[in-house]
Amino acid sequence: MEENNILDQDLYAESIRAALEVDFLNNREEVRMYATSLYNAMMWAKNHTVKVK
Q1: Cα–Cα distance measured from residue 6 to residue 31, given in angstroms and rounded to the nearest whole number
Q2: What is the dihedral of CA 41, 46, 48, 52, to 10 degrees?
Q3: What secondary structure letter does DSSP report for 27?
Q4: Nearest C-alpha neighbor of 36 from the set 17, 12, 53
Q5: What is the extent of the structural domain holding 34?
Q6: H-type helices in the chain, by residue range?
Q7: CB distance 40 to 46 below 8 Å
Q8: pLDDT digit of tens for each residue in the chain (53 aa)?
Q9: Count of domains in the chain?
Q10: Is the pTM of this model over 0.85?
């Protein structure tokens, strides 16, 4: 398995906690999809953040 395919479990848990606080999600599937989207956005930001010198 490539390193890029390894799930950051702490970050995913954080995204699930954030998704559980959203009021407009109505069921478990919506929470899972929203959490996955948050996770993907956080992973993208983690890998594409410009470092300030």
Answers
A1: 21
A2: 140
A3: S
A4: 12
A5: 26-53
A6: 9-20, 28-48
A7: no
A8: 345 567 889 999 999 999 999 999 999 999 999 999 999 999 998 888 766 66
A9: 1
A10: no
